[in-house]
Amino acid sequence: MKNNKPNAAIVWKQLEDDLVPRLGLNLPERVAYAYLVRQSRLEGNREFCFGIIWLAGGLRLSQATTRYAVRSLAAKGAIRLIDRTQAGHLVEVFLPDEIRAAPHAGPLRYYLGQRSGGPNARSHDIEEMDFFERFNRREAIHTRERGQCFYCLRPFAIRGRVLDHVVPQARGGTNSYRNLVSCCVECNSQKGESGAEDFLRTLYRQRRITSAELESRLRALEALAAGELRPVLGPPAAVLNKPENPTMSKRSKQMRKAGLPRLPKLARRKKGQPAGAAFTGVPSSPKSPNPTKGQNPKPTP
Q1: Which of 36, 128, 173, 209 could serve as a FRET partner for 226 with CA atoms 20 to 30 Å apart?
Q2: HSE of 145, CA atoms in CB hemisphere, 13 A
Q3: DSSP conformation letters of 16-29
Q4: Is residue 177 in a domain?
Q5: pLDDT at res. 180
Q6: What is the pLDDT of residues 131-154, one digit of tens each?
Q7: Residue 26 domain-assigned?
Q8: Is position 253 within any domain?
Q9: Structural domain total, the chain
Q10: Quick check: is 52 in a domain?
């Protein structure tokens, strides 16, 4: 499907000034989206077919990082998967002004490699996950809020963000994604063990949020409790085995597998030592100085 080529300068300004802060795109997502727009929309094509290995090579990123970036872009509504073929993934790439808001229709389906279980099994697993015990799950909650406090909607730095329980743990709150939000340190300390709705009304009385923002936050609480604001989980980290030492002999490998102690290393013979000094541990005797060096030898009768 052909389309008129957009103005590259306008698209770049919309990407940097509007789309990145609005969707909370991180660095891999930004470069992946810019690369796909360059290869598709700026060439006059709305649809584009690519493979993860090819895209990772063009971005100079690992395949796992590239795959997660593409999944996140699809979950945020920047691209739409049309079909998956042997040639690669056929997607529709949207321009920044065509992306209204990130969809909240559940977690991204595993159509980019992992198909086992299906989306229903994935939805069942995410309901039982503890999102407070692992780092990648806590980061998924922070990414869902797109770099701003859930309560006061103020953007914050990475060091100034914390996870807050909507229903406090003292009142029976769990560590589910339905009960965890990303907020600033100030809102977390002020909220304490009070309910989220009461705290939002307190922020409104303090004029930290407007009436429209109060209504939007109350609707967000209802959507969170209904399970509509699901975080996008990244791929699990790969466990790499430590490579074996290529210089290790076959006998040393067998002894290591059997649990036997290592053989002591033989010391190397230094330059100037006799042949047996390095192995017996006996230090070599220093060379005796030549008494006749520098003197005139006695004449022979």
Answers
A1: 209
A2: 30
A3: IIIIHHHHT--HHH
A4: yes
A5: 93
A6: 888 888 888 898 898 889 999 998
A7: yes
A8: no
A9: 2
A10: yes
